[in-house]
Design a protein that fits this description.
176 residues, alpha/beta, three-stranded antiparallel sheet, binds inosinic acid, binds magnesium ion
Length: 176
């Protein structure tokens, strides 16, 4: 691992306050219904749990994981499932929870895939969005923060599997 350090981009207080707002907004938007959260492993685990605690309508959850692949495969835009959902989503109000949307490839693929299973509704919620990096068109209904094109860690996001447990969002700065 290259020598680096982490600089705080969004403090724990700022992130938690925004998640609380998102939870309130989602609870209002889905009032009278129950919502089925789909957590995209592993990065979204922290955000999904914090968000779920702030939602006041009935919540159920399921988990899905996309397989990791090398840089070469990534540029081809192929996304494979390492773990599918445990339950059907037909006729349910489905909200996909993602940690960050970068190129948008993962999410545009997942949205197509889950859309074929005929949910009552299908929306997307991401903690972070890097709009400058978008390659694949994807409609995102709930965004925590739009950030510039920097490599970030914490709150579930990793650098080589490290730093997921940081309670804030930090930028990886490489020491030259
Ligand atoms: P994409 O939107 O298909 O390009 O992929 C998004 C995925 O790339 C996320 O779920 C993360 O796993 C990873 N990713 C993108 N940007 C970052 C970052 O800044 N830090 C850590 N992981 C990232
Ligand atoms: Mg991820």
């Amino acid at each position: 691992m290259e020598k680096h350090h982490i600089e705080v981009m969004l403090t724990e207080e700022v992130v938690n306050a925004r998640i609380k707002e998102l939870g309130e907004q989602i609870s209002r938007d889905y009032a009278g219904k129950s919502i089925h959260l789909i957590c995209i492993l592993k990065g979204s685990v922290y955000f999904t749990c914090e968000l779920a605690k702030r939602i006041t309508i009935p919540v159920t959850m399921d988990f899905m994981q996309c397989s990791s692949y090398g840089a070469e495969t990534k540029s081809s835009g192929i996304v494979k499932l390492a773990k599918d959902l445990d339950e059907p989503i037909m006729d349910r109000e489905v909200l996909i929870i993602e940690d960050i949307i970068d190129s948008g490839r993962t999410l545009s693929h997942l949205k197509d895939l889950l859309g074929q299973r005929k949910p009552a509704s299908l929306r997307l919620c991401t903690l972070l969005d890097k709009p400058d990096r978008r390659v694949a068109e994807v409609n995102v209904e709930y965004v925590g923060f739009q950030i510039e094109d920097k490599f970030v860690v914490g709150y579930g996001l990793d650098y080589d599997q490290k730093y997921r447990n940081l309670p804030y969002i930090g930028v990886v700065e490489f020491d030259s």
